[in-house]
Design brief:
The structure holds 2 protein chains of 2 kinds. By secondary structure, chain A is of the alpha+beta class. Helix content of chain A is 30%, strand content 20%. Chain A has 2 domains: 116 residues, Glutaredoxin (3-Layer(aba) Sandwich), CATH 3.40.30; 252 residues, no CATH class. In chain A, the strands form 7 sheets. Chain A has a 5-stranded mixed β-sheet with strand order 3-2-1-5-6, with helices on one face. In chain A, strands 14-13-15-22 form a 4-stranded mixed β-sheet. In chain A, strands 16-21-17-20 form a 4-stranded mixed β-sheet. In chain A, a hairpin with a 4-residue loop joins strand 11 and strand 12. Chain A is elongated, with a radius of gyration of 30 Å. A 3-stranded parallel β-sheet of chain B has the order 3-2-4, sandwiched between helices. In chain B, helix 1 links the parallel strand 2 and strand 3. The termini of chain B are far apart. The chains are: A alpha+beta, B alpha/beta. At the A-B interface, strand 10, helix 5, helix 6, helix 7 and helix 11 of A face strand 1 of B. Strand 10 of chain A pairs antiparallel with strand 1 of chain B, so a sheet runs across the interface.
């Protein structure tokens, strides 16, 4: 009998004591004239008691039938499964086969063993081999080609080694989301190529992500593709900026992100690879490459990866994503068009007024001290600085208002030629007073190690808001 | 573990999977062409004739020689050819 006909299918392996126990029962069924096919997972000669054995050591049939336990007995009619019994349960086997009594000398019930098709690593390999969920082009390597070098040679790397995206690894990565591989998230600039969940997963493999990071990477890609983020311009600009990913909510702790010591630096796999995966999606799916559409004069090292989590537990304020409209307890990413990190030192301020004055003085220099409105900024307040605001009773909103009040720029100071500096605003603005930051252009987050009265200003792109890029927050979907 | 032989394409698949050839020279005239002698017998004779033809077309010719045909060219030699030449012709066999 072949699959698709009427009858019974049994999946067994010699290595399973329950299977060897029921081997004589399978012989009984065959002798009773029941159409029976036995798929043997580990030994083509097992069970000797039946003649219609199929060698399933490649596990294709086991995988296609979704076998998790052996023995499993399935009744099919017209090729469709009608019922299945998992392990040895005499009553169920009798009902399925219509043969009774069955295995009279056996105990009435004995649990089975794990199917070889669901052993660790095997299930992914089987899906990669026999499944049809993946639609990306398969690139065959030369027999002597080193896979890591092959990825470099094809231009898929950002300059650092990547993990070769084998079908098995991509299947495993896709296990991190319930979203379908073919779902289209949008079009990646600059080529406006469709970005599918599968393409993101492939690039997440390249970047070194674990599957549980994938929902965060997907959210980051979705945020980058929102029109107001202006990813195309951000990529193409001669300015330093690239997308920074700030993660809020329970997912950050679940996947082990760093929001503490060296939060903006190296050393944490989730921080490092999530930001990198986003960049690789733009590079590979979008086709955005330095020297191509990426025209950055200098760039910045954050364009390899720039991702961290907010320290919510130690923060005097509500999470940044919550301030931006995400419900409490939900996870979200906020993308920001980040240039580089500028350190702010203040070891003597013990009042919020004094520390805010320091922040304002340093924020004034973002891009150029004579530039009002042009550039957004993300102020990352460290725990020791945040303590000053907590003790002073300043909310995040209060801090922002106080900063903006100290950051009103006078036209006489910022017009061209003022201060002996040719750069500046047109003469006609000499009597104007303008804010340093546009409304919504100053973000404040909390992160960093417990020691150090230092905070960070991360300058944006001097094309902000409707003129260029605005920060975008997107919820993480599991 | 055996090396993976199939990779899934991470790109937007707008370009062929096979790597493209390097851009062709628009013209030999004014180009700098390297001739690589791999140290096989009479390769130099062949390359001498190639050089005459290239010079006649207006190309500038630089001659290079591998220490032995049995091994790949040393990195220094490859880098020198890549940095000094617009194209290279390699005399592969005798």
């Amino acid at each position: 009998m072949s699959e698709g006909d009427e009858g019974l299918l049994a999946f067994v392996k010699r290595d399973c004591p329950t299977c060897t126990l029921v081997a004589p029962v399978l012989g009984e069924l065959e002798r009773a004239g029941i159409p029976l096919t036995v798929y043997s997972q580990d030994d083509a000669t097992f069970p000797e008691a039946v003649s219609t054995r199929v060698d399933d050591r490649e596990l294709e049939a086991s995988w296609r039938r979704g076998i998790e336990t052996v023995p499993t007995l399935i009744r099919v009619r017209g090729g469709e499964e009608e019922a299945r019994a998992v392990g040895w349960v005499r009553e169920e086997w009798e009902k399925l086969s219509g043969v009774s009594p069955l295995g009279a000398e056996l105990p009435g019930w004995k649990p089975g063993c794990g199917s070889r098709s669901v052993e660790p690593g095997v299930a992914e390999a089987l899906e990669a081999r026999f499944g049809d969920r993946l639609s990306s082009r398969r690139v065959e390597l030369g027999s002597d080609e080193d896979p890591i070098e092959a990825v470099f040679a094809r231009g898929w790397s950002d300059g650092l080694p990547v993990v070769p995206p084998t079908p098995e690894r991509v299947v495993r990565m896709l296990g991190g989301t319930s979203r379908e591989p073919g779902e289209i998230l949008g079009e990646a600039p600059p080529d406006l190529a469709p970005v599918t969940v599968e393409k993101v997963a492939i690039n997440a493999v390249l970047a070194g992500c674990l599957p549980e990071y994938l929902p965060v990477v997907l959210a980051a890609v979705e945020a980058a593709l929102v029109d107001s983020f202006c990813m195309h311009g951000l990529l193409a600009t001669t300015w330093f900026s690239g997308p920074l990913v700030l993660v809020n909510g329970p997912v950050a702790e679940r996947i082990g992100m760093n929001s503490g010591i060296n939060a903006l630096g190296q050393g944490n796999r989730a921080n490092a690879t999530i930001g990198r995966a986003l960049q690789l999606v733009i590079r590979n799916v979008g086709g955005g490459r330095p020297g191509g559409v990426d025209r950055a004069t200098l760039g910045n090292p954050g364009k390899y990866t720039f991702c961290f989590a907010e320290d919510e537990a130690g923060s005097p304020w509500e999470p940044l994503a919550e301030e931006r409209g995400v419900e409490p307890g939900r996870s979200a990413v906020t993308l920001f068009a980040a240039g580089g990190v500028q350190g702010v030192l203040d070891q003597l301020s013990r009042t919020p007024e004094s520390l805010a004055a320091t922040f304002a003085a340093c924020l004034r220099t973002v891009t150029h001290p004579k530039f009002p409105i042009a550039t957004d900024a993300l102020l990352v307040v460290s725990p020791e600085h945040a303590r000053v605001f907590r003790e002073g009773g300043w909310s995040r909103e209060r801090l922002r208002e106080e900063l903006l009040a100290r950051l009103m720029l006078e036209g006489r100071d910022f017009v061209r030629g003022a201060g002996g500096i040719a750069e500046g605003m047109p003469e006609g603005l000499a009597s104007a007073t303008l804010p340093k930051f546009r409304p919504g252009g100053l973000l404040i987050a909390h992160a960093g190690g417990r020691a150090g009265m230092f905070s960070a200003i991360i300058g944006g792109w001097p094309a902000s808001g409707e003129m260029g890029s605005a920060p975008v927050t997107v919820e993480v979907r599991e | 573990m055996s090396q993976p032989r199939i990779l899934l394409d991470p790109t937007g698949e707008r370009a062929p999977a096979a790597r493209g050839r390097a851009p062709r020279l628009a013209s030999l005239a004014g180009s700098r062409i390297g001739l690589l002698d791999i140290s096989k017998a009479r390769g130099d004779v062949f390359l001498q004739r190639v050089e005459e033809r290239l010079v006649a077309e207006g190309a500038e010719v630089l001659r290079f020689r591998k220490p032995t045909f049995t091994r790949v060219a040393p990195v220094d030699l490859r880098q020198e050819i890549a940095s000094r030449c617009d194209a290279v012709i390699e005399a592969l066999a005798d």
